[in-house]
Write a structure and sequence with these properties.
The complex is a heterodimer of chains A (about 80) and B (about 350). Chain A is an all-alpha fold and about 80 residues long. Chain A is about 85% helix and about 0% strand. Chain B contains 21 helices and no strands. Classes of the chains: A mainly alpha (about 80), B mainly alpha (about 350).
Chain lengths: ~80, ~350
């Protein structure tokens, strides 16, 4: 009885919002972790050879796709 | 993986401070490696005179060092000192740009330059060399800075030098020096270096560190094999050879080496065929080989090759950095061999045999 009561009290819109939050939040952390190493590696390469700036930048932002997918999912949930 | 390892090791007290940033360091070192003199340049260098070689070297990363030293030196000496200075600067840079674990490992590994410099000091004082002469022979790639070493070189006697080194870990060995036991002290310094290195590599169980350990052990093996070849050829007493052997090799431990020591030169060469190093030297070694140059070049080449193949296994670890250190040292050696050989009018074949490419 008590459980049913709690479930009934939850607003679907609120659950959707939590889902969207988790989708963006977790993917954000994931891209952060992925970009950390790539970014520092890119800086390392650039310190020796400045010409690698363009390549380094592109490689660094590739994991950014993860958070973009997260954002898309969040928008779809909404 | 590294992140997981970090969490796992969090509770343990570690020997080094700060976080290690392998991604930054390994990539930077790889970029530095791409600046080394490419293999195809060596045949070109062989066809040049000293001044042309100087000019070609000036176009590479040695430019600053050559420019700086051009006022004081010329010809072969200029190249030699430029190379040494660059080597010292590059290795000091490696220590400076790294932090945490790799910094600790690199510092320990480069300690052999400190040992080298202390030996130079003692030898210089022993033969009453002038301050400038001693200073010229320094390669300050380790922890002892060039300024500190120059200060020591200016001291009057060896006892002053040793008391100035009181705060270093070499002091317990150095204080027993009494001008009669130079070679003994030198041996003990070398052994101390390897003992320190073993302490460092023994501690970790991660795969890349194990590879690093294998790598150091292979290096020790190759050093021992070289010593054995030289001394066996010269028919030195086995007990004396044993003093010069470094313990802790990968395939050749002291027990195996003792067995090898009791054999004659021919039997020793036969017995070596059991070990993996035989493949690299089998074609050039026979019982009547006069010169050991080829053998030593092949062995060095073997350690170089194994280092570069290791470095691809764990790209974000200490191994590619070690690979760079060895390649850089080898490059400096090669350039020195070429210029010194040219200056001494050696034939191209003789020089080419000495090169490790």
């Amino acid at each position: 009885m008590a459980v049913e009561g709690v479930v009934a009290a939850m607003d679907p819109a609120g659950l959707k919002a939590i889902g969207a939050g988790i989708a963006v939040g977790l993917t954000g952390i994931a891209s952060g972790i992925a970009e950390k190493d790539i970014g520092s590696a890119a800086i390392g390469a650039m310190a020796e050879n400045e010409g690698l700036f363009g390549k380094g930048l592109i490689l660094t932002v590739i994991p950014e796709t993860i958070v973009i997918f997260g954002l898309v999912v969040a928008l779809l949930i909404k | 993986m590294r992140l997981l390892q970090k969490f796992k090791n969090k509770g343990k007290s570690s020997q080094y401070k700060g976080s290690s940033n392998y991604a930054y360091l390994a990539t930077r070192v790889r970029a530095m490696k791409s600046n080394l003199v490419p293999t195809e340049t060596y045949p070109r260098l062989m066809n040049m005179g000293i001044s042309e070689i100087t000019r070609l070297i000036q176009e590479t990363e040695y430019k600053r060092d050559i420019d700086e030293l051009a006022r004081t030196y010329s010809g072969v000496d200029l190249i030699e000192h430029g190379l040494n200075q660059n080597l010292a600067e590059t290795f000091t840079k490696l220590i400076e740009i790294s932090e945490g674990e790799p910094n600790y490992l690199i510092t320990e590994y480069l300690r052999n330059y400190d040992v080298w410099n202390i030996k130079t000091l003692l030898r210089g004082k022993y033969y009453n060399a002038s301050t400038d002469e001693i200073k010229e022979a320094f390669v300050s790639a380790g922890q002892l800075s060039y300024t500190f070493l120059s200060e020591l070189a200016g001291k009057q006697s060896y006892s002053e030098v040793i008391s100035a080194l009181e705060s270093t870990e070499y002091y317990p060995i150095l204080k027993e020096y009494d001008e009669t036991n130079l070679s003994d002290i030198e041996n003990r310094l070398d052994k101390m270096y390897y003992d320190g290195l073993f302490n460092v590599i023994g501690g970790s169980k991660s795969k890349d560190r194990k590879l690093f350990a294998t790598f150091i052990k292979t290096e020790i093996d190759i050093k021992n094999v070289k010593t054995l070849f030289r001394l066996k050829k010269a028919e030195v007493d086995p007990d004396e050879i044993l003093d010069l052997i470094i313990d802790g090799g990968l395939e050749l431990n002291v027990k195996n080496i003792k067995k090898l020591l009791s054999l004659s030169y021919d039997d020793f060469v036969q017995a070596l065929s059991k070990y993996s190093y035989w493949d690299t030297i089998s074609e050039i070694v026979s019982s009547d080989t006069d010169s050991l140059i080829n053998v030593e070049t092949q062995l060095t080449k073997h350690s170089l090759k194994s280092a570069s193949s290791f470095s691809h296994v764990y790209p974000l670890s200490i191994v590619p950095i070690m690979d760079y250190i060895i390649s850089k040292r080898n490059e400096v050696n090669n350039l020195r061999i070429i210029t010194r050989g040219k200056a001494a009018n050696l034939s191209d074949d003789v020089i080419r045999n000495q090169l490790v490419i």
